[in-house]
Amino acid sequence: MEKALKRYAPIFILPTFLAFVIGFIVPFIEGLYLSFCKFTTVDNATWVGLTNYIAAIKDTSFTDSFKFSVMFSVVSILTINVLAFGLALLLTQNLRGTNIFRTVFFMPNLIGGIVLGYIWQILINCVLSLTAQPLLALNSKAGYWGMIILMCWQQIGYMMIIYIAGLQNVPDSLIEAAKIDGATNLQTLIKIKVPMVMSSITICVFLTLTNSFKLFDQNLALTGGDPNHTTEMLALNIYQTFYARSGMQWKGYGQAKAVIFCLIVIVISFAQLRATRSKEVQQ
Question: E strand or H helix at 41, and its extent?
Fold first, then answer.
């Protein structure tokens, strides 16, 4: 049986592998090549070397978007994971209606980012108008915190489910042993539960990190980068460079930004995975 599985496994793997190559590997390599070109279409590209990358690095709007993305990501990662872990702790207690609460908290994750962005844009603008504050289009501070609220509202429920799964896998014998030894609830949390769910923390931090840095649709719908690009994240900046301007130079310029963006996300993600995995406890 095992020999048959090994023999025919490539046949079943081949369709998925071909789809991956056609849908990801080939476009990625082609996009990497085009980042060194001026072009309007794939067949109309002129090699310009590092010109696009030099222009991208010197572009203050791109560096400002990077700084804004970092500030947004740090706050959203901490807020989402702390609140999600807190909810997971509450909903793993013997409380009535925990399944209902889990469903309610998870539901915002099922709504598309564009829809969420426009919903929260209406809500936040209503609150700002009632308090006589400038609307989102003229209020960068409100735009920043509005995006944090939106991201938290959408992501907390999803991360909560992952944390619940991790907490439920903590052996009861360890918790009981800690109680017998006189450990407080806080000591049990810090010394036992957190180390034992470190694998869940790794997953959740990775997801929130990549989702925060790659945020596009919510940013486009909620603020559109207004006022004056002060709430523009990296993905939206690349989109505006590539699609909002005409000319061969802007396509290659936007493609170079996209490659830099990809490398930034990869480096930061691998650094985070290495840092958190080193603290995981083998059960």
Answer: strand 37-41
pLDDT at position 2, please? 64
Residue 112 region, left (φ>0) first, then alpha (ψ -120 to 50), else beta? beta
Residue 77's Cβ-side half-sphere holds a number of Cα atoms within 13 Å equal to 22
Using DSSP's 3-state secondary structure scheme, residue 39 falls into strand
Could you give phi then psi for residue 203, rounded to 5 degrees? Answer: -65, -45
Rg (CA), the chain: 23
- Per DSSP, 150 falls in state H
User: What does the alpha-carbon distance between residue 183 and residue 181 come to, in Å, rounded to a whole number?
Assistant: 6
CA–CA dist 220, 113 (Å, integer): 9
Distance between CA atoms of residues 204 and 198, nearest Å: 10
Long-range pairs of 132-137 with CB within 8 A, sequence gap ≥ 24: 136/222, 136/223, 136/226, 137/223, 137/224, 137/226, 137/227
CA gap 17, 9 in Å, rounded: 12
| pLDDT higher than 60, residue 283 | no
Q: Tell whether the model's pLDDT for residue 79 goes beyond 80.
A: yes
Chain centroid, CA 66 distance in Å: 14
Q: Under a CB-based contact definition with an 8 Å cutoff, are residues 208 and 77 in contact?
A: yes
